[in-house]
Automatic annotation (TrEMBL):
Taxonomy, superkingdom: Eukaryota
Keywords for the protein's UniProt record, in alphabetical order: FAD, Flavoprotein, Monooxygenase, Oxidoreductase
Taxonomic path: Eukaryota, Fungi, Dikarya, Ascomycota, Pezizomycotina
Protein name in the entry: Tetracycline resistance protein from transposon
Record's keyword annotation contains rRNA-binding: no
PANTHER family to which the protein is assigned, alphabetical: FAD DEPENDENT OXIDOREDUCTASE DOMAIN-CONTAINING PROTEIN, MONOOXYGENASE ASQM-RELATED
Domain FAD-binding: 8-208, 315-350
Amino acid sequence: MSPSPPRIAIVGGGPAGLTVGLLLHRRGIPFPIFELRQKPTDEELAKPSGMLDLHEESGLAALRECGLYDQFLQLTGDCAETQKVSDKDGNILYTDEGELSERPEISRHALTRLLSSHLPAEAIKWGHKLLSAASSTTPRGTETELDFGPHGKQAFDLVVGADGAWSKVRSLLTDVKPHYSGTQSITATVRQATAKYPRLAAFVGRGTFSALGLRHGVMTQRGPQDSVRVCVFLTTADECFAVSSGLAGRTAAAAKDRLLDDDALLGRWGPPVKELVTVACDEESADNPGAAVDIKPLYTLPIGTSWEHKAGATLIGDAAHLMCPWAGEGVNLAMWDSLLLAHAITEAREAAGQDAASFQSALDPLMKEFEVDMAARAKEKAEETYSNGQMLFGEDGAKAFTQFFLEAYQHLAGAQGGGDTQSRPDVI
């Protein structure tokens, strides 16, 4: 009987899944990517989306190995690396021009398009919702069966869970689940901001803007279509805040009065920041008539989440180490995971050839090392993320954040004088 080649599947078509898929594709290793969403249209991918700053040792390193670094640089003009910090009344306490930054920004949609456009069209199975995953022992080794409901069941020798916060693949490895972080997020977008609202566009600047105070925050980033993406972060112990506050189901325009009048929310904030939120909510509703306001609780996995290695499955990205966006590390850790996992899979395939059982035997020690290393990296970044969140959403987050930047710049300026060229810390 001829040997049976190893079957590899990736669940999730976000940055983590697409990156590991592209790296395997470049090495001639076959796989499908199963993605819950339907295939996005070009029009959808052209819309403003969240901006992602990629770091040298992780996201940028993965793009270089994918052969996409030069193409990536052509997609980074929408959001500058500048920072502005204001207090709750709109007084600017800190501003820079990104002088010491080496973390270019790309929109999430642009990164998705960049990665997916270099994969064969048939590699991504759109509209596949994973209902469950189960592992069993067979003559060829550990086999993991994925149930996609109407799309049927399929078995694989290795399943890579890149399926995000509420990962179904995670249940194969650990019972740990995300918990509520204590923060609610409301998002709205202003397109063509410079032409429509030149004063507000100048107020928030060309890059990232953070207004902080009273344990809340209003943060913005520039993006495609000369947009300003506005995120309101509210600290509350109420996980069901959207429903209990009455905001769930309302349009953004209808929700803004509650946000801006309630002293427990943004009622005590100054006119410049309130105007920013007002314009964002009105523009969001004008662009998406009748759509409910985008409000959601933020979740995180416990710091230090890890699991005992089990053959046949692993996790990367948010499925492995979900955290809040206070350190800008989520996508970077995910792409770093993908880079190192692709190395491990490639080494095992080269050692095992076309035999699935030999592949699992060769992969297991490499996977154990990968998962231990990933857990250690994620723990460090999760601790940094938690610390940043405590700083940003204290009673006077603006003062604390300003001090953070001033101290960081002093440290890095001194380090650069001694020949150290590391980039500055980034928080969102």
